[in-house]
Write a structure and sequence with these properties.
binds adenosine-5'-triphosphate; Rossmann fold; 13 helices; 322 residues; binds magnesium ion; single chain; six-stranded mixed sheet; alpha/beta
Length: 322
């Protein structure tokens, strides 16, 4: 991800010398136009955000919920307190390159803008805070990261933490082969998520994974929302291709063929391309055929689409959606 990267002088990787600044891959104040633009580039972002928003706002906007209760009932309803029992955890899962990371970031920005929250921050946990050598290292850094997060969340401040590629932090403790260190890390994560409830929605965690099947059941049950991401369907691939290929004058026949070629092909047992396959492989490879001597043709795109191999799936079979 190309958001402001943290500079780090520590190259020991997950080991003992990590400072607080190294706990986060990046942190930024929200709203942030760069984060918003991430969402604007995603096909289907607006629709997904609108589906997610109501759940998230109920969690995050406890002030708004209290005001709503006063406005319509002239009192704070008991159910407003029940809402506070929920855990501020959302899980994004699904296949590789389907927009989980980008959506997790962009959703926080959209939410903050919509609430008009004056002070909010987005943190992304560094991938270095895991797999440390020695018992308790992951736990130690998770503790430090959450302490830093909680410190930020003073009055009226909102903090969002993205735990990306979280399988290693949240993998089930129940397998014979799970390493003792990982088990300790999961216990710490569960405990921290429990602790966050006292912030009444001012701290929210979004956990992203493409291996939902390994996530510990205790983490799963705490999620207030589990959101599934898929490879693009025909309409989504068309939308992306039309957007990206605007101005090159592609014929409708070529577009139709391109949409078909980039999708799943049951007869050949081939899965479709991911969003990132389309954007970062198909399109650049087609441009490479034309650049620098001539325009891109429909045939260039078709030729690349026929050759390109979709990124192998991480999904064994489609999971049950909530
Ligand atoms: N809905 C989408 N619309 C357009 N482009 C998308 C979409 N989703 C993903 N992409 C493209 O794919 C790239 C990768 O997205 P992202 O990193 O968010 O995927 P991911 O699901 O987190 O993948 P991984 O499981 O590999 O971490 C994005 O930078 C973007 O170019
Ligand atoms: Mg990702």
């Amino acid at each position: 991800m190309d958001l402001r990267q943290k500079n780090s002088s520590d190259s020991s990787g997950g080991g003992g010398m990590m400072s607080t600044a190294d706990l986060f891959e990046f942190e930024t104040r929200l709203p942030d136009d760069h984060v918003r633009d991430l969402g604007n580039k995603l096909i289907g972002f607006k629709a997904r955000y609108e589906r997610l928003r109501d759940d998230l706002r109920l969690m995050v906007d406890s002030v708004g919920v209290a005001a709503w209760s006063q406005q319509f009932y002239q009192q704070t309803l008991p159910v407003c307190d029940t809402l506070k029992d929920r855990y501020p955890l959302v899980i994004f899962h699904g296949d590789v390159g389907t927009g989980k990371t980008a959506t997790a970031e962009a959703v926080t920005d959209a939410l903050v803008r919509e609430m008009g929250a004056p002070h909010a921050r987005l943190f992304k946990l560094s991938t270095r805070v895991r797999g440390g050598t020695g018992v308790g290292v992951t736990s130690f850094f998770l503790n430090k990261a959450f302490t830093a997060l909680m410190r930020e969340a003073g009055n009226d401040k909102y903090s969002f933490l993205v735990l990306d590629e979280a399988d290693s932090l949240a993998a089930t403790r129940n397998t014979l082969w799970s390493h003792h260190e990982d088990k300790v890390g999961v216990n710490t994560l569960i405990q921290k998520i429990d602790d966050l409830r006292r912030f009444e929605g001012r701290i929210m965690v979004i956990l992203c994974t493409n291996r939902i099947q390994v996530i510990d059941p205790a983490i799963m049950r705490r999620a207030l929302r589990i959101e599934y991401f898929e490879r693009p369907n025909d309409a989504e691939r068309r939308e992306l291709l039309e957007k990206e290929l605007a101005g090159i004058g592609l014929s409708e026949e070529h577009m139709k063929e391109l949409v078909a070629l980039t999708g799943p092909d049951e007869s050949r047992k081939r899965i479709g391309l991911t969003f990132s396959d389309l954007r970062t492989r198909l399109l650049p490879e087609a441009i490479a055929l034309a650049f620098p001597d001539r325009k891109i043709t429909g045939d260039d795109l078709i030729q690349v689409a026929k050759q390109i191999q979709p990124t192998p799936t991480m999904i064994a079979s489609r999971p049950q959606e909530q």
